[in-house]
Amino acid sequence: MVANDFTLRGRNAFFVAATRSRGWCFVSGNGNGIEKLQREIDSIQRDFPFFEFICPDAETVKSSRNLLRKSDRELDEIQRALSTILGDESLKKYVLDAIKRSDK
Known about the structure:
- By secondary structure, this protein is mostly helical.
- The protein has 5 helices and no strands.
- It is globular, with a radius of gyration of 17 Å.
- 0% of the residues are buried.
């Protein structure tokens, strides 16, 4: 959920839970995103006690802020639509083609 959550809600909830724990924080998961999360955790442990934060570019920050301003209802609708598109290869190809055409 965290690795594939474009809404940032899961990521933010995970970050708050992990950084606010007073002792141990157990993390479990499965699926496509767990490898990415495992690499991130490994990197944090390797660099301990330091934490390297790579700041995203201004456009990414602006986009994230706009997304976080949306209501839970709006985000749920967007997440459902995105899941539908990503779950259907022909629909995904159609949407990607439409995006490429709109960028020209």
